[in-house]
Amino acid sequence: MAGSVAVPGTGEVRWQYARPGEALLDADWSELAGTLDALAHPARLAILQHVLGGVHGTAQLLEQPSVGTTGQLHHHLRQLVAAGWLASTRRGHYEVPAARVVPLLVTVLAAHR
Questions:
Q1: Could you tell me the CATH number of the domain that includes residue 52?
Q2: Is the pLDDT of residue 107 over 90?
Q3: How many other C-beta atoms are found inside a 10 Å radius of the C-beta of residue 40?
């Protein structure tokens, strides 16, 4: 799989990953539950969408009605960082790591019906 996308404030992100289909089918998918579970909340998806859209600071994120209170925001940020979907660039600022941008967008695309 490969892809590239222009991310506001970051520029173009390119991604390529190859793994044989058999290896994916033989892997223990239950090990992925924590990473996927981090995406299974509307507020966390909104946070990721805002960060990809150029909103990187917690103060800016708190202005978005979909992220909840300060405590809720920090709870969600911790879960997203722990799962590798976000990285702290400096105190109170976050980004989606370049290696996660295209996989995140593919996951979102796969969720559409």
A1: 1.10.10.10
A2: yes
A3: 9
70, 94 contact by CB (below 8 A): no
Four-residue CA torsion sign, 53, 56, 60, 61: positive
The pTM for the full model equals: 0.89
Q: Any idea which residue has 């909840």 for tokens? A: 68
H or E stretch at 87 = strand 87-90
pLDDT at 3: 80
- Tell me the C-alpha distance between 38 and 77, whole Å: 10
Q: Is the pLDDT of residue 35 over 80?
A: yes
Domain count, the chain: 1
Tokens of 47: 């946070």
Q: Which residues lie across from 14 on neighbouring strands?
A: 4
The residues facing 57 across adjacent strands are 93
